[in-house]
Amino acid sequence: MNGSALQFGALDWVVVGLYFAAIAAIAVWVALTRERTTTDYFLASRNTGWFLIGASIFASNIGAEHLVGLAGSGAGSGMAYAHWELHSYLCVMLGWIFAPFYLRSNIFTTPEFLEKRYTPATRTTLALIFLVSYILTKASVTIYAGAITIKTILGIDTIFVPGVGATDFFWVAALGLVVITGVYTIIGGMKAVLWTEGLQAPLLLIGSVVILIVGLDRIGGMEALRAANAETISIWRPLSTTSETTGFPGFLFDPSDTPWLGVMLASPILGLWYWCTDQYIVQRVLTARNLQQARRGAIFAGYLKLFPVFIFLIPGMIAIALQKQGAPGFAEMTSPDQAFPMLVSYLLPEGLRGLVLAGLLAALMSSLASLFNSTSILFTIDFYKRVRPQSSEAHLVAVGRLATLVVVGLGMAWIPVLLQLSGGQLYAALQLVQSLIAPAIAAVFLLGIASRAVSPVSGLVGLIAGFLVGMTRLFLQTTHDFTGAVYPPVIQAFVDINWLYFAVLLFVFTCVVILVVSAFTPKADPARIAGLTRDTLSPEQRAEVRASYGVWDIVHSCVILAIIAGVYVYFW
Amino acid sequence: MNASGRIAFKGLQRFTSMHPPAKGRATADLWWCAGAMSTSGERAKGRQV
């Protein structure tokens, strides 16, 4: 094996070729079905079943960086980061708690829900936050991570492009993948996204599952895994014990990324934002043909989201075990971060390596396609349609296509721009935006559906207050990082609080703001928010929800929760 | 990108940075980008040292 690159044989390339052929076939098939309305284009005619919904949620979540990066994290840090991969319980929560409200309100986007529950300005604020952050952070990072992965795995530095000359392969990979993904997303809309992801989700699982099975067999099972990773096997990591970071409030300044208390409290909050309120994930549930299918799709996604711990993190730990056992080839492994190419090279035969490469491409393209479509719907439905309410459905579909095209272009254009500014560190700052706004969004949605006592104005005030606090920290933090500015102790403490504890405090702060403002502002007319909060459901709506699930929905949800609990117990 | 993605991205950045590109600048760029993952915790670590 040479460096980080993998060696691929003819059979591997045949597999990759078959993957692209299948994607093309699906794209052509979808393109032949005319999409006349925005419901057709953005929500696949609201006629999707549970399999495609679950597969799409999972494929959107997993990017190319997960396949490579998490194996390295598993090898280096063991189970420390597993909490973030055990968010299946939030998929279950999406299906049982949030989906009924979303489907009942017949929305296209989650900001639209905030208009119905709170005020139009709340919708505009959230849609703007989503739209800007999708274009500035998600699009560029997804394209970047995907292209760099492909370049490194294939081991191609430069490639000759006729008319251009020798070109960095990064740009060829980025442009190629964006164009292919962009074409079928623009033409086929959500239906193309869902159907291709129905293929991509299993594909990105197969190669990794084989690595897990072969790897565990090779090292001698889970006990050998535990023995070789004794120091990193525990899922809980201690709090810092230095004199500066113990006691109150010292513990808030824990320098670790994985203090057990911070992870335990912050992980559900940040996860609630991502899995239950972010348009990127929720849009898939909105395509369901009914509540039953929506819930089952979310439950299926919950099952799929159990996989990453086993197929990405544990294989990293398998690589460490193989290295310690002196397995052929693994002695060359000088860093835990080489785990992924080592595993693929030494555990998989030709053909299956191609399947892994196809899985990488699938992970990248599915995340990109979802992003393009979600950004397009936010612009078209939350902004354009409101400014021009008389627009025909056909016109809005055309705008949606054009918006997708613009997002594709902006995603590409943004990468070099960011890299020119501050040597790429602005990119770093922008990445923090979402974790800093997430707690406020989670609070606004959670309290919004919890009680009608939460007033319309409070949602907007809470969202803006939480946003401003988060952005203040971002500003102070980046200024401190870039210029070395020194602040008075109180302000410096605000910047230095561990990001996990900061997320928890911001969530609590936003909840308090919402509740205090609610106490002093008029409540919503019960008729206006009927069915949008837990305590405004009519008997008919309650009966409708009860009729949408059966005993197996409950059993499967309990199985998911039991598996999560089992993982926690096993890796305690 | 959620926390899971950021953790994965960090790993990817470490992975690619092990083999600095002699020709392209993409990996070096990624190195910068991965400052993206810097957290107050990591800065605090530096401060402690």
Please supply descriptive tags for the structure shown above.
heterodimer; A: 572 residues; mainly alpha; B: 49 residues; disordered C terminus
Low-confidence stretches of chain A: none
Q: Using DSSP, what is the number of strands of chain A? A: 2
**Overall average residue pLDDT of chain B:** 51
Q: Give a quick account of the main beta sheet of chain A: strands, pairing sense, barrel closure.
A: 2 strands, antiparallel
Order of helical and strand elements of chain A: HHHHHHHEEHHHHHHHHHHHHHHH
Description:
The complex is a heterodimer of chains A (572) and B (49). Chain A is mainly alpha-helical and 572 residues long. Chain A has helices at 10-31, 38-43, 50-61, 64-77, 88-104, 110-117, 120-154, 169-219, 222-228, 260-277, 279-286, 291-304, 307-324, 339-347, 352-387, 393-420, 425-450, 456-483, 489-496, 499-520, 539-547, 551-570; strands spanning 158-161, 165-168. Chain A has a two-stranded antiparallel sheet with strand order 1-2. In chain A, helix 5 packs parallel to helix 10 (260-277) and helix 8 (169-219) packs across helix 16. Chain B has helices at residues 3-17, 26-33, 40-48. The interface between A and B is large, with 75 and 43 residues.
Detail the topology: elements first, then pairings:
The complex is a heterodimer of chains A (572) and B (49).
Chain A: H1 10-31, H2 38-43, H3 50-61, H4 64-77, H5 88-104, H6 110-117, H7 120-154, E1 158-161, E2 165-168, H8 169-219, H9 222-228, H10 260-277, H11 279-286, H12 291-304, H13 307-324, H14 339-347, H15 352-387, H16 393-420, H17 425-450, H18 456-483, H19 489-496, H20 499-520, H21 539-547, H22 551-570
Antiparallel strand pairs in A: 1-2
Chain B: H1 3-17, H2 26-33, H3 40-48
Helix pairs in contact in B: 1-2
Would you summarize the structure shown here?
The complex is a heterodimer of chains A (572) and B (49). With 572 residues, chain A is mostly helical. Chain A is built from 22 helices and two strands.
